[in-house]
Amino acid sequence: MDIFDRARSFDLAHGARQAGLYPYFTAFDGPDATTARLTTGEDVVMCGSNNYLGLTADHRIRAAAKAAIDRYGTSRTGSRLLNGNTPLHDELERELADFLGMPAALVFATGYQANLGVITGLLARDDVVLIDREAHASIYDACSMTPAKVRRFPHNDMDALRRRLAACTAEASTLVVVDGVYSMAGDLCPLPQLVELCGEYGARLLVDDAHGLGVLAEGRGTPAHFGRTADVDLLSITFSKALASVGGAVLGSPEVIEYLRHHARSQIFSAAAPPANIAAALAALDVLRNEPWLCEQALANAQFVQGELHDLGYHTVPSETPIICVPTLDVTATVLAWRALLDEGVYVNAILPPAASPRLRLSFTATHSPEQLKKAVSAFAAVRKLLPVGAADDLAAAS
Ligand SMILES: Cc1ncc(COP(=O)(O)O)c(C=O)c1O
């Protein structure tokens, strides 16, 4: 058996492309704005971006990134530990810690690497890591790289988590890992109960708040939304959503952050985030501090669409965030609906297994206009018959 055999027998992409039903790697020609231009020259309403505050095309963020290129060039060509660090990276760490109310921060090149760094940097043999079944793939990947015992618990099921914690031996050091906001459905983790359970069993808690930062609690995220920032041991974030850039960070106590600075292999053995990315994140953070109403606007836009979809008979998963999940019957129904929506001039994300159960994922930003929101709703009205409600109903209830 040649290891390339599995590549030769993989024809999903080819078949779907032939049928015009391939929902991935769509190329966009222009900025990630609410109107997105396809390479065919057509404009569509973008309802599948994580640009929650609408800042990727903002002149202030672009100017900051350009100034950083002028000063530092395009890349540091090395890890922060050696030749890759700049005052911008250090400043962003101070700003993030201050804004999020955490003692210290460590900046990584991506949010994915931040999760790899914190989880593999801290866990050792005989430790136990308990993860929510719907935690982000980067958390799964990080756990698979540690020698620790990995246990999953059903999504947001605190009774199951309690049983798993109770089953850990007294000597085992335990880490519980959850998403603050679950990116595929937009629901939140039950943070107060998680904090209490971790306290009761002496476990540490890591919250990945990729989709809470810049969205909830005037942008301060899920811990602030629940008023429990001081009770969260570790927070991981990304700059690739509300902060309109690319990069990530881990926040926690000064000694843990200092330890990770010298033990997080995903940072030590990978090049630093380019200064332009860091400058963009700093500028976006500044906008977020000064214009917290942008978070409210993103939420209000999503709530408007959610209400309209409900009136059309769609049963979306209840969400307190700008993410809307429309469960679908199966893979075929998902790609057919995705294509039909695109033909109506609206781009959404088609989510298929193994990422999650089939669904359409929509996300809204502070800068969608009322006309764009109405266009999205009209498109969903037009494709209504492709998305049978009975089946979607069961999936929505199961999510
Ligand atoms: C919950 C969650 N964590 C981590 C990441 C990784 O972030 P990044 O895009 O910065 O690698 C993502 C992005 O997809 C995410 O949704």
Question: Would you write up a description of this structure?
Answer:
The protein has 399 residues and is of the alpha/beta class. It folds into 2 domains: 8-56 and 292-398, Aspartate Aminotransferase, domain 1, CATH 3.90.1150.10; 59-290, 3-Layer(aba) Sandwich (Aspartate Aminotransferase, domain 2), CATH 3.40.640.10. The protein has helices at residues 5-8, 12-18, 59-72, 80-84, 87-100, 111-122, 137-144, 158-167, 191-201, 221-225, 254-263, 265-268, 275-290, 293-311, 331-343, 370-382, 389-398, and strands at 35-37, 43-46, 104-108, 128-132, 149-153, 174-179, 204-208, 234-238, 248-252, 323-327, 346-347, 349-351, 359-363. Strands 3-9-8-7-6-4-5 form a 7-stranded mixed beta sheet, with helices on both faces. A 3-stranded mixed beta sheet has the order 1-2-11. Helix 3 (59-72) packs antiparallel against helix 13 (275-290), helix 5 (87-100) runs parallel beside helix 13 and helix 8 (158-167) runs parallel beside helix 9. The protein is globular, with a radius of gyration of 21 Å. The two termini are 39 Å apart. Pyridoxal-5'-phosphate (PLP) binds at residues 110-112, 115, 136, 138, 179, 183, 208, 210-211, 238, 240, 248.
Radius of gyration: 21 Å
Mean pLDDT: 94
Spans of at least 5 consecutive residues whose pLDDT stays below 50 are: none
The unique ligands bound to this protein are:
pyridoxal-5'-phosphate
Question: What count of structural domains?
Answer: 2
E-strand count: 13
Question: What is the count of DSSP helices, taking H or I runs of 4+ residues?
Answer: 17
> Span from first to last CA?
39 Å
Query: For the record, what CATH class of the largest domain applies?
Result: Alpha Beta
CATH topology title of the largest domain? Aspartate Aminotransferase, domain 2
- Major β-sheet annotation: 7 strands, mixed
Task: Give the strand line-up of the largest sheet.
Answer: 3-9-8-7-6-4-5
Q: Encode the helix/strand succession as letters.
A: HHEEHHHEHEHEHEHEHEEHHHHEHEEEHH
User: What would CATH call the architecture of the largest domain?
Assistant: 3-Layer(aba) Sandwich
